[in-house]
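Lecture notes, unit on protein representations.

Consider one protein chain, 157 amino acids long.
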Amino acid sequence: MWPFLVAIAVNEDGYREVLGAAEGMKEDKSSWVSFFQWLRGRGLDGVKLVVGDKCLGMLEAVGEVFPEAKYQRCTVHFYRNVFSVTPRSKVKLVAKMLKAIHAQESKKAAREKAKAVVEQLRSMKLKEAAKKVEDGIEETLTYCDFSQRTLDSHPYQ
């Protein structure tokens, strides 16, 4: 099976749009740089936020091709990492706790909620899950650095 690199954006109407896909590339830096440069060559500009699965190659390429863009770890991938060390019987409860962090109205409130969630996870004897939240939550909150107005005026993020 060949890997695919895919770029999806949100258009001005709030709908997702595929910007491009490339088959047979690796997830290394050079493949991501090549893919991002291809997108740039097709007219992609004004990128402010790139969301990904924490692939090291993508992280390095974002800084090189889109130095003005910020990176955010995908919350779904983050949640899955937390669930990987959570007993199956507790996944629904932990999911609700994680979603509460990202439902906050500000970065400050999200950080405070994350601290409370970490403490709650520890009290539930879920030390590994608590550690993953504590160590990784910040990289999932990058979107908080943008006002809604900024996001609305830059649809391809």
